[in-house]
Amino acid sequence: MTHVLSPYAVDIAALRSLVGSGDERRLHSLDLTDEDLLEEIDEVDESHLGWTADPVRSTLRGLVLGEEPDRRPAHLYGYCLEVLCRILPCSTPLPSRAWTGIDFLLFMHVKAELQKAGSAFDPATLIRTGPPVPLPPAGETRRIGHLEAEQVPEILADLDRIDEASIAPDVLTPIRQLHGWLRECARTGRGLVTYYH
């Protein structure tokens, strides 16, 4: 089974100010017109767990209004957090072609090559740090990670020093793409939020 790592450059402070805010006005201002996106998530959930009562919109409502989690599947909160990362103006999806159709071995391989090239960064950090806002635990069904904006410059400086000539060609593109994510976050003063699914 293969996975995708989906990265977003996010103003994490702005995201945190929305999630759990209880602000009905901000909830109603969200652009939830991407029916394909919402239906795609609904279908994924229905096919696995049988939850059919418009789960995305009701879970988004719960996230923004700070409602106590109910009986809906916990992984829906992770999907809905990604919906917010796709639609909020404080968030930008980043290119991730080199991180599509992957398994965890890529993280291990990238880590080994980065170490060989002089970097201490472990890319598994991107799926092990957890979401930037509190969510119900969803087990292994959705791994979410994040880097605060304040963490980005140090990691970027670390990657800026690597010797690309020493990196195996098969992981050079994923490493360059990761480097690009951090550059964009540094340029915009944003953090990085990633979803491995």
Automatic annotation (TrEMBL):
Source domain of life: Bacteria
Residue ranges constituting the DUF7691 domain according to the UniProt record: 1-197
Name by which UniProt lists this protein: DUF7691 domain-containing protein
Organism: Nocardiopsis composta
